[in-house]
């Protein structure tokens, strides 16, 4: 019985150590070493190998090493094999840090001051406190909820938007298409933490930006394809949005000639808002293997119909 890991090698080496200590009965392989393909029961990958059904006939579980599964072609993974995404405390902690940093940067006009410094302009802007600022998070899943709790504790007036309707103390909760307009109308700093699905692709568009108040800031931490990039540039250039903080882009790395690189109202980071941490993610996978063995529900099981 073996576990095949196909992703970042340093994390793989750490998983190998932890598996050896905690699950010595499982033969652990790091791609491209696969051992006997018939022995492979479990696969963890960012991008699964081609033809996994044919190559690994006894596969029982597929793990995404990331929080999302948008990079998987789910149609190539046989229906009977559960697909599990990454839910682990390290990934959550990293996202809470980054989202808090980004919201505070937006709240305290950090981008304006960076531009002013380059121009040697000493010009204070009015200071508002967090309790007068309305923040909205698209997506109230594992990451969105953790971010909302931290921002609420900072004193921001927080709201979240989900598909099915969530509830969280001290957070105004909106759900579905019918609530989206009201959610946007009250949101001055918007954070996107949605999964990328057929329903959410291109959601950060002109139509959505129009519903935000004048001067709003947009922060995209989900996936690049949530955003219609030309619509963002237009909203920034028409001064409807005052700034954008982007951790993800449609094409990564961002092409050298892309206007985001030099746009004075855009702050960019190279998809580092959060990363799967070696130790805590190995624990999460080992826990799911135990659950699988014992017939218990898996944590982070992907609903193929919803796409997340
Ligand atoms: P979850 O699956 O736990 O949560 C997804 C949330 O989005 C849920 O609240 C869900 O609603 C909501 N949602 C999904 N589709 C819709 C829709 N059509 N309309 C309204 N709401 C919708 O995901 P996570 O919180 O774990 O992760 C979110 C995403 O963050 C990941 O998919 C990934 O793309 C991104 N990410 C980015 C990273 C980075 O470094 N930039 C790192 C890690 C993740 P409901 O509650 O009703 O199901």
Automatic annotation (TrEMBL):
The keyword Iron does not apply. It holds the Pfam family 2-Hacid_dh_C. Residues 102-273 form the D-isomer specific 2-hydroxyacid dehydrogenase NAD-binding domain. CDD domains: GDH_like_2. It comes from the Bacteria. Keywords: NAD, Oxidoreductase. The keyword Thylakoid does not apply. InterPro entries: D-isomer_DH_CS (IPR029753), D-isomer_DH_NAD-bd (IPR006140), NAD(P)-bd_dom_sf (IPR036291). This is Glyoxylate/hydroxypyruvate reductase A. It comes from Halomonas kalidii.
């Amino acid at each position: 019985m073996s576990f095949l890991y196909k992703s970042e090698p340093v994390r793989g080496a750490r998983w190998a150590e932890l598996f050896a200590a905690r699950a010595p009965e499982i033969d652990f392989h790091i791609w491209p070493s696969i051992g006997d393909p018939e022995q492979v029961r479990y696969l963890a990958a960012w991008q699964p190998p081609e033809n996994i059904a044919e190559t690994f006939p006894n596969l029982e579980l597929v793990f995404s090493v990331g929080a999302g599964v948008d990079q998987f072609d789910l149609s190539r993974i046989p229906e009977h094999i559960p697909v599990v995404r990454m839910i682990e405390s390290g990934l959550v902690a990293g996202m809470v840090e980054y989202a808090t940093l980004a919201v505070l940067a937006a709240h305290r006009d950090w981008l304006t001051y960076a531009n002013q410094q380059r121009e040697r302009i000493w010009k204070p802007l009015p200071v508002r406190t967090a309790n007068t600022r309305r923040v909205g998070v698209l997506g109230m899943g594992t990451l969105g909820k953790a971010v909302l709790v931290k921002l609420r504790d900072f004193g921001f007036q927080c709201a979240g938007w989900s598909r099915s309707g969530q509830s969280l103390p001290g957070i105004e909760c909106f759900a579905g298409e019918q609530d989206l307009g009201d959610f946007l109308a009250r949101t001055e700093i918007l954070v996107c933490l949605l999964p990328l699905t057929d329903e959410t692709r291109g959601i950060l568009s002109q139509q959505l930006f129009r519903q935000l108040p004048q001067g709003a800031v947009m922060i995209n931490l989900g996936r690049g394809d949530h955003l219609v990039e030309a619509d963002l540039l237009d909203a920034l250039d028409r001064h409807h949005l005052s700034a954008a903080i982007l951790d993800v882009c449609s094409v990564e790395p961002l092409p050298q000639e892309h206007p985001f690189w030099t746009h004075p109202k855009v702050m960019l980071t190279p998809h580092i808002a959060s990363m799967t941490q070696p130790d805590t993610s190995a624990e999460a996978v080992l826990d799911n293997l135990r659950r699988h063995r014992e017939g218990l529900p898996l944590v982070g099981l992907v609903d193929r119909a919803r796409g997340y």
